[in-house]
Amino acid sequence: MSNPPKKISLFSAIALSATSMIGSGWLFSAQLNAKLSGDYAFLAWIAAAIIVLLVGLCLSQVVARYPVRGATTRSSALSHNNIFGMPFAFANWFGVLVAVPNEAQATTQYLAAAMESATLIDHNTHALTFAGKMFALGILGIYLLINYYGIKLLAKVNNTVTVFKIFTPIFTVIVFLIAKFDTSNFSLASNASYSVSSIFSAIVGGGLIYSYNGFQLPASFASEINNPKRNVAIAMISSIIIVMILYMLLQLAFMGGVPHDMIATGGWASLNFHSPLLNLSFLLGLNFVSMLLIADSIVSPSGTGYSYLGGSARMFYAMAAAGQMPKWTISKLHPKYNLCRRSMLLNFIIAAVILWGSESWATLMLVVSGYNIIGYMAAPVSMGAIKSKTRLFGAFVFVLIGLIMSTIPARDLCLISSSITILVLIYSAIGVKNGQLSIKDLLILNLPIIGYLWSLYFSQNHIYTIVMALIFYFLVTHPKYVAFCQSSKVAEIDQETNIVL
User: Fold this and answer.
1) Distances (CA, A) of 113 to 5, 75, 345
2) What is the Cα–Cα distance from 311 to 223, expressed in whole angstroms?
3) pLDDT attached to residue 490
4) Taking the CB of residue 145, how many other CB atoms lie within 10 A of it?
5) Burial state string for 325-361 with b = 16 or more CB within 10 A and e = fewer than 16
6) Domains of the chain and any CATH numbers
7) H or E segment and range at residue 122
8) How far apart are CA 320 and CA 492, in angstroms?
9) pLDDT for 453-484, tens place per residue?
10) What is the pTM of this model?
11) Cα–Cα distance between 426 and 287 in angstroms, integer?
């Protein structure tokens, strides 16, 4: 009889989450944030951290009740039912999965820029060439190998990578601050064009949500972490605070290090570095920092990429276990490595297809963020349904998420809402055809979320957004609505916890 798989420690859980958040975002977000919010960039990092912290607190309440594999995508299925939870689960899973090829692209683009290579990237369109995409596919293959032999190998690799990923930004910050810090950069005349509202624009458009998104990975690995009822919440909160401080220091060093004459006339909006930190290090003559940044352009995105591939595979397994994906897409957990290899391979194939069809890091970042934000909506909804005393807190968190969602460009919001609507229609059609679902139940269960998402597309007025968010939240967390969902829920036993779902 084989020994049960060992679980990872609190330190490893914190490292896993922190490593995921120090990916390609730190290489690009300092410039994007400065362009969109000017001196408000520091408040934007704090505001984004507060939002994901609140979402993490909601999610930890769900995990405390149901410490299961893939709890991030499974939360609304646990609190309501599989049909209601399907749109949230799809958005959460797809947002994490699309980020995997995006990280591989980030590494390829940074290396191409550093080597001034036209083999990997077309310098006219900034898109990956055929050779560039093949190179990025090879990086995806490495992500797969790291995950294929279970959480212990992933944790060992990740603990080592985390040290380098955290050291490099800290070292870069210190050197940049010593080499050059121009205080006049923070008193530009153009800074008057920015306001508090710029903070909300930067949270999504500046890549801040994208950068913080790894905070939720401890919830995906909940069943594989020691004492998940306590450690999942601690891991999320600790990693968010650590990464927030790091990103704010990096923002300070970047904005203080940019030569003043480059922004004196056009302001931060005129700044257009192709590889921001690398370009700045060249301008300041810091060649040794440039070499370190080139190395980190491989390590940082890769640390996020392989963590996200592992997280997305566990999310996919959870969706299939809940009946939200075909059962044939999963197999029994490997007795030694405690993972579903079929789910892992399917996620790898989907990531490879997305990589081949996309052009660059920037083309996917906003869409990824949109899916992530919809996935976040499930946390306060599920918490409010499980613990009715938390509904007011959950409503506050849900309104904040709605306001952030309304800042996404209309074209991307339409794409995101359309894809989820189409998936719901296909899923519903199959269920009705097989006699498993009635049209009436489908309308009651799916119409609220679909209607809410499209309401955000048709108007971005703040008051309107708040009102629509409150109507939706209090409807779907109302005890009668939750009872209706639970009454039509198909009971199943979670094999890891023996909890009736």
Assistant:
1) 43, 41, 31
2) 12
3) 46
4) 11
5) beeebbeebeeebbbbbbbbebbbebbbebbeebebb
6) 10-365 (1.20.1740.10)
7) strand 121-122
8) 12
9) 999 998 888 999 999 999 999 999 999 999 99
10) 0.81
11) 54
